[in-house]
Amino acid sequence: xxxxxxxxxxxxxxxxxxxxxxxxxxxxxxxxxxxxxxxxxxxxxxxxxxxxxxxxxxxxxxxxxxxxxxxxxxxxxxxxxxxx
Length: 84
What we know:
Layout: H1 8-15, H2 31-45, H3 53-66, H4 74-82
Helix pairs in contact: 3-4
């Protein structure tokens, strides 16, 4: 017989693990990377990066994850690039 499961919500809540606290990804990076990220954002805002937002956000997310700087998805990068 199959094991009885609770609701999707119960299962998701009971298995959720907060691995990085409540700080947003861009606040968890080192001071050195903070400065580099601020320059990237300034270049984006100034229009010096000639890529669509989603394309650039996916690329930057991959670079950040590959370098182990801060785990983040492209939506988090998009949101950060749009913010003031």
